Every structure is written in C-alpha cells, then in structure tokens.
UniProtKB/TrEMBL annotation, chain A:
<protein>
    <recommendedName>
        <fullName>Transport inhibitor response 1-like protein</fullName>
    </recommendedName>
</protein>
<feature type="region of interest" description="Disordered">
    <location>
        <begin position="1"/>
        <end position="24"/>
    </location>
</feature>
<feature type="compositionally biased region" description="Basic and acidic residues">
    <location>
        <begin position="1"/>
        <end position="11"/>
    </location>
</feature>
<dbReference type="GO" id="GO:0019005">
    <property type="term" value="C:SCF ubiquitin ligase complex"/>
</dbReference>
<dbReference type="InterPro" id="IPR032675">
    <property type="entry name" value="LRR_dom_sf"/>
</dbReference>
<keyword id="KW-0539">Nucleus</keyword>
<comment type="pathway">
    <text>Protein modification; protein ubiquitination.</text>
</comment>
<dbReference type="Pfam" id="PF18791">
    <property type="entry name" value="Transp_inhibit"/>
</dbReference>
<dbReference type="GO" id="GO:0009734">
    <property type="term" value="P:auxin-activated signaling pathway"/>
</dbReference>
From TrEMBL, chain B:
<dbReference type="Pfam" id="PF02309">
    <property type="entry name" value="AUX_IAA"/>
</dbReference>
<dbReference type="InterPro" id="IPR003311">
    <property type="entry name" value="AUX_IAA"/>
</dbReference>
<keyword id="KW-0678">Repressor</keyword>
<protein>
    <recommendedName>
        <fullName>Auxin-responsive protein</fullName>
    </recommendedName>
</protein>
<keyword id="KW-0927">Auxin signaling pathway</keyword>
<keyword id="KW-0805">Transcription regulation</keyword>
<feature type="region of interest" description="Disordered">
    <location>
        <begin position="55"/>
        <end position="76"/>
    </location>
</feature>
<keyword id="KW-0539">Nucleus</keyword>
<comment type="similarity">
    <text>Belongs to the Aux/IAA family.</text>
</comment>
Amino acid sequence: MSEEDGDHHSSEATSTNSLSGSHPPDQVLETVLESVLQFLTCRRDRNAASLVCRSWHRAEAFTRSELFIGNCYSVSPARAFARFSKVRSIYIKGRPRFADFNLMPHNWGAHFRPWVSAMARAYPWLEKVYLKRISLTNDDLALLADSFHQFKELELVFCEGFGTRGLSKVAYNCRQLRVLDLSDTEVTDDNVDWISCFPEDETCLESLVFDCMENDINFDALERLVARSPLLKKLRLNRYASMRQLYQLLLRAPQLTHLGTGSFGLIENVQNMDDNQECNYYSSAFAACTSLVCLSGFKDVMPVYLPSIHPVCANLTSLNFSYTNINPQQFRSVIVHCHKLQTLWILDSVCDEGLQAASETCKDLRELRVFPVDADEDIEGPVSEVGLQAISEGCRKLQSILYFCQRMTNEAVIAMSRNCPDLLVFRLCIMGRRQPDSVTGKPMDEGFGAIVKNCQKLTRLAVSGLLTDKAFWYIGQYGKLVRTLSVAFAGDSDMGLRYVLEGCPRLQKLEIRDSPFGDAALHAGAHRYYNMRFLWMSSCRVSRQGCEEIARSMPRLVVELVRYDGEEGSFMEGDSNSFTVLYLYRSLEPPRNDAPESVTIL
Amino acid sequence: MEGSRKGAVDMLAGADLSLGLPGGDGAKLDFVRTGCKRGFSATEVDLKLDLNAKESPSSVEKVKPADPARPPAKAQVVGWPPVRSYRKNVMAHNNKNSSDEDQAAEKGVASGAAAALSFVKVSMDGAPYLRKIDLKMYKTYKELSDALGKMFGSFTAGNYEAHQGMIDFMNENKLKGLLNSSDYVSTYEDKDGDWMLVGDVPWEMFIASCKRLRIMKGSEAIGLAPRAMEKCKGRG
C-alpha cells in the first residue's frame, strides 16, 4: 500500500496533456474505471481490484464509500483517510472477542477518540458509523453530532464508556438521523432525558434500538416520538417498558417490522381484567402489526401473556427468546405457529423437548442459538445431544448454530454434520471443561472431525469438550475455508496448534485459551501472522521469551502481553515477566501508546 | 445471595473452611466475576472449592479426572463458560423474580395450560407493577411468603433482613406486632369480596377462596383484624 502513487500520476498526466489536448486516454480510462468501480460493493473484490495496477488502486480508493477497519490498531486514521477520501460509512472493530469474557482489563484500549477527531476533518459528509467493541465517551458523541451534518446511522455493538448525555447530543443535532441502534452496549445514566431531545417535527427515524439500556426512559416522550416517526420500522424497548406502554406503542406504530418487547411482564397496578381478557386485549394490538417479522425482548416474561403474540407468529422470520425463561410447554405453544422462522435464539429452559418442537415446525431454520439459564459447569443440563440430533433432523437448511450444553455425544455431532451440510458456523460449547462423549467416554475428536469434513462451507468453528491433537489434525486437514476458530481447554501438545496453523489457509482469527500450546507452535505459525487479523492465546504455554522472538523477527506484528486475573485494579502475583494473555496482530503503525499498565508491548 | 447461588451455599455449609483470600497465604482461590458495572444484585462471587486438589499459583486450572465420564467438581475460572456478564446479570435478575414459578413447575405441575388458569394478581402498595402467581404451585403459607418476598423484595425501601420479616403471617402474635408497626401485611380478597388477612384459614381453604392478593402497609390493615376474627368464628 504505497502512498507515493498520487505524485507520479499527476506528472504523467501533465506530460500527456501537452501532447494530445484536452482528453488524454488514460484520464478517460480512469474516469470510466471510477464509474464502473463505484458499483463494486464487496470489500474483498475492491481489495483485489486495488492490486491490479496503480491506476486501479487510485480509482478504487477514490470510489470506496464504505470503509471497514477490522482491527482499530492495524492502521492509523491518518493513513486510512489519506488513501480513501470519499468515505460515507465506516465500520470499526476494537477489542478482541475474548475480552467479552472478562479476560482483559476494561481499560485495555480501542478508543473512538482518535478516529472521530480525524473523521471530523476528513469526512464532513459522513453518514454512517458502526462500532463494535469500542470505548467511546460523551465528548466523542458530541463531536460526532457536531461534525457530520448529513449523519444518518449510528450503530454501537458491545460498546461502552458513554451515557445518556452523549445520546442526547446525537438525538438533538443529527436532524437526518435514520438509525440509532444500541445493542449489548452499556450506557450510563447521566440523568438526561435523551428521548425528549429529538426534534419536535416529523423525524426520519427508521430504527430505534435501546433494549440493552438499564435505565428508565420518559415514556410519554417516546410515545410522541413514535407518533411523529412515520418511517419507523424497528423499535426495541428496554426492560422498563410495561405491557400497557408496549400496547400503546403498538397502536401508534402498526407498521413495525422489528419489535423488541422489553420485559413483557411488567403490569401496571390497575388492570381489572382476567387473564383471557388481558391476552385478547394485547393480542389485538399485535394482530394489527401485519408487517412484523422479528420479535425479541421478553426479558422478564409473564408466560400467561405469551398467547398474545400468536397472531404474528405465522409471519415471524426471527424470534429472540434468549432471555426468556420458559418451560417446554410454554415454548411449544408459541413455536408451533412459527412456520417461517429462520432465526431462533432461546434459552435451554425449553429443554430437548422444546428443541424437538422447533425442529418439527421450523423447517426453514437457518440460525439457532441455545443459551444456558445457568452458566455453571457442574449441573444437570436441560439440553443435550438429544436436542441437537432433533434439530439436525428437522432443520436441514441450518447454516449457523451456537449450542450450550452440559452433555454431548460424537454421534449427535456427526449426525448434524451429515444432515446439515450447509453449515457455515458451528459453535458447540460443552460447559464442563474437557468433558468427553457422555455415552462412550471418548474424546469429541470424531464429532468435530466430521463437522469440518462434511460441512465444506464452514467458515467459523468453536470447539469444546475433551479434545486431543487428533481433532486439530482434522481441522487442519479439512477446514480449508475456516476463518475464525475458538479453542478452549483442548489439545495435548504443540502439534495441535501446528496442524491448524499449517493446514488452514483462510484462518484470520484464532482465539485460544487454557490449552497446552507453547513456543514451538507459536513459531511454527510465523508465516501466517501477517495474513491474519489476530492471534489470541491466554493461559497457554507460551513464554515471554518465545513472544519476544516472534516480535523481533516480525517487525510489522504488534505483540501484546497482558497481565490480568479477572479482578479490576489488582496486580497479579508472580514476576513481572508473567502474563495471562498473548494478543498479536499485524499493523502498519508503530505500537500504540494508549495501553494501560497491565499491557506490555514487545 | 440470590436463589441462583444455592448450590455454592450448600457446598459451603458442609465444608470445613479456612478461606484463603487472594494475596494471602495458602491456597489461591479462583473467582468468577459476573461484571458488576450495571449495579445489579450484589457482586456475584461464586466460591466453588475443590477441596481435594492442590491449588497452584497460576490461574490455569489443572484437573486430572479419575473417571473421564464424571469429572469431579472443579474450581471455576474466569470467563468460563463463555457467557457475557450482561446476559448472566439479566438471568440472575430474572431468577430472583420467577425461580419459584419454575421450581414449582419442575415439581411436576401437569402442564402450562392447567397452571395458567389459577393465577391470582398480587399487588403491593407503593410498587408500580403487580405480579401474577399460581397459588396451586405452593403447598404452604411459608412457600407463598418466600415467593412473594422474592418478587417484591426489590421494591421495599428496607434492607434484606427487613424483607425476611416483611411477609411473615404465620404467627398471630407476629401479625399483631406487624399491624402495630409500619411493616407490610398480606391480605386477600375472598370469594365474597371481603378483604381478609392471609394466614387465618387452613391453606386449602385459602387457595379455594382467594381471588386476589394485596400486600398493604401494616397501618392500613388494622381495621381488618376484627373482621377476620369474626369470619373465623362464623366458620367454626
């Protein structure tokens, strides 16, 4: 990615100009190229196009309107914005995913500030910002709201560091705002009524998502906002919305396509109806929402109210019951109506029975996630290999599965590999560490082996249970399209990691914890690291010296060592050379200077 | 500690402990943190002690299960199972409110449909929202009392100890004591439309006649006691 191209071309252009008049052929070519390239949307295609030659590189950079930064530390804002001058949307990802599980300190990094400051100067016409695992402050949001007068979409996923004051600035200043989505994001309560800060006239709002917010909102203001937002299609309320409030909002916005119902269990202290009357009352509001295709919320559900969603079940393509602690019978009474369902997130409280019910009805299912009610290791789990087998037999079009369980067998996993060959994502979390096949007592190698062998489109894999190096041999042998691999408490020796690093050419993101892989394996993968987004290894057998060697031999690699034991503000015992996390990533920049004390950059 | 931590508490009750806290001498214990940033019910620190294994200073947990089919109880480690703390906090909060309904369901109540028919509304003075419970899921006043305490515990201004005594209507003497204080008292509306004090009649008679429950401030319930007595005399 050389930055010198620009100068060279302009001197060429001048010399041609003086010879042939006003339309030199290569400028025409470049203009044509730009008109064509602007239709190229897939960023991988664009990356390929930019490598053809210098003029293609230039044209592509000039026409790229969506900029994707997979690791905020791999490139600096200055460098990125110097190359791409016409960006309208920007996606930035920060922390590595394992940081979600309390394996890194909260102040590790991934700050929005340097990006938003640079964007404010470089892209005054910016329309869309999407951030994932980034820390941002109220001031950052204020700067965003002030700098981009055509700003339309803000999506924050797994972010934190700001509060309702920052939101109020966005609501107030961004008059063309269409999308304000906060998903799984922490928002502190600054005691600001941000909902009231939206402009008083009709808004362009199409999507308002705040189901993760843990503070109460001004419901009257929300109701008025919904009433003056005729384009609103997505609305996801937080837990503090009561049934009556939900009902009123549905009456105002029957055009909704995506609805987050809040708790679906808070009832005001005034109703005089009996149960049937109440259900009918609410279901009439649902029945009016003929465009509803996606339902979520139900965070503290009163199961008696579930029948009120029956009118919309037949149209649903997506149902998120992953905070909804209901039993198999209650679940069945809903799921039997959901013939068109493609995405289903549930809790294991529905048991194998509930999964059976889903497999009988949801023949079009593409994505299933089963979360645990109790994230403990040593308990009897309500879902098992029986549920997995049932799903595999009923839902043949399955593409993505995340399944938490306490027991599993190779047989069921092999069955899924055969029944669901279209799988792209297979994430199985057997919660007991190093737990073998619950029937045969053998390792889970054969099950995962069958998955990589039979599901030839697989791009993402998470393994668990008792696994030997053999499992990794299978992955290296057959997992040729795997881009993301998550490993925990698995493997016997360095060979396991070597099989993967040597065998998986498309591997981009490798996250490993508590597995016996050491320096030899780390070095065996050196040829891969410039082609990967990152490698994460925590509580493995790599030594500081081994990491230093890698850092020395690979100058464009940033090697971070983190010492963190899960407790904020504490210092770990042991000598200063010890660390818990190795996080390495390629970067065009020198190592960052915003790291906290617990991080050492080699 | 909330209901979902029962397992750990049971283990602690039976164990012979000397707690070696982090940084101290002796064994290093691994803690599970469920991320307290949202200010949910107290920091959830779960101690699960593997009393047989020798703890090592490193945070890597080493287990050699004797029988591969049934690993022994393990000391928990950070971030495993990989469930985000937001999700854990929401589930813990929900367990506080609804675990009783679920536990009762597990005890073998026939089906969801049957259970739904006998819900009664429960309101508490001062609480913005009311709940519904299925009286058939409880067998004694004590169970009901515990359930109500969990459901409405978050709405009382007092501390946790106070809430334990809040709904204690088993004892007539205590009832009178409650009536004289500003504590809460449970009342119910019966088939006749009269408001009675909970606890006067045998349990079976209560669930057959109870239409609605109301937890009111003790000071407001004073007038009820004489009527309750009269009704009881009337029933003989």
